[in-house]
Specification:
Elements lengths: L2 H12 L4 E6 L5 E5 L12 H11 L3 E5 L2 E8 L4 E5 L3 H12 L3 E5 L15 E3 L3 H8 L5 E5 L4 H12 L5 E4 L3 H13 L4 H4 L2 E2 L11 H16 L6
Parallel strand pairs: 5-6, 5-8, 6-7, 8-9, 9-10
Antiparallel strand pairs: 1-2, 1-4, 3-4
Length: 232
């Protein structure tokens, strides 16, 4: 990789922005495409879907192009999961997500719930959810799941998440609870298209009952969204 591209890549990694390095194997020509540049590519650019897939799957690919063989190498920041609410489901979801490769942060100002004893070895923020999420600088490799059922905690977190590039946003609760939640978030200025980003009730419809089963359904849905698989 030439020096200019390397400096751009290092800056992208510093800002935790996904990027893809393109190298044509026959000619040695190189190109770096940042994730936020994908929208400016021509609609008929054949490389755009290939780059998106490489970034989404976090996996390199070699393909044939008009200019010869091309290797696309993704450079992604780590996957992160922000869990709002130190509840029983969180105690199952947090370690499961860690096994799936996520850096997990638990957010809950209630110190008696969000304690080292209940969540050993987990990064915990006792800040109010909106402040915690702002500080975490959510990006397109971040998932946010709210589990408290308490609008005072869930709504501020969802408000910040909806204003970010988080790839997965989910909230626990019944359909009736979710309807009321959408009304409150609408009052905060979010339109219908933005609110549609929230997966509510959180998780795939697996018939989950126990905290562990619900955690499995949430992680399954998160994985589906990450890899662009339509859950329908």
């Amino acid at each position: 990789m030439n020096r200019d591209l390397l400096e751009r890549l290092l800056e992208a990694r510093r800002r935790q922005q996904p990027a893809a390095h393109l190298r044509w194997l026959d000619s040695g020509r190189e190109r770096l495409v940042l994730a936020d540049e994908l929208g400016s590519l021509p609609a008929d650019d054949p490389l755009a879907p290939i780059i998106r897939k490489a970034l989404r799957d976090d996996r390199g690919a070699t393909i044939d192009t008009d200019e010869g063989r091309l290797f696309v190498q993704p450079f992604n920041p780590p996957l992160r999961l922000v869990v709002v609410g130190a509840v029983h489901i969180s105690q199952a979801l947090v370690p499961m997500a860690g096994l799936a490769g996520y850096d997990v942060t638990l957010v809950d100002p209630r110190r008696s719930f969000a304690s080292e004893q209940r969540f050993p070895g987990v990064a915990i923020s006792h800040d109010w959810p909106d402040e915690a999420l702002e500080a975490l600088a959510l990006n397109a490799r971040t998932a946010v799941v709210t589990l408290t059922h308490d609008p005072k905690l869930d709504d501020p977190a969802l408000d910040v998440a909806l204003r970010s590039d988080a790839f997965y946003i989910a909230a626990l609760g019944s359909r009736r609870t979710h309807g009321a939640r959408l009304e409150r978030l609408t009052a905060l200025g979010h339109d219908e298209a933005t609110l549609a980003r929230i997966h509510g009730p959180a998780g795939l419809a697996l018939g989950a009952v126990s905290p562990a089963e619900i955690a499995i359904s949430v992680l399954a849905e998160m994985t589906s969204v990450l890899h662009g698989v339509d859950r329908a």
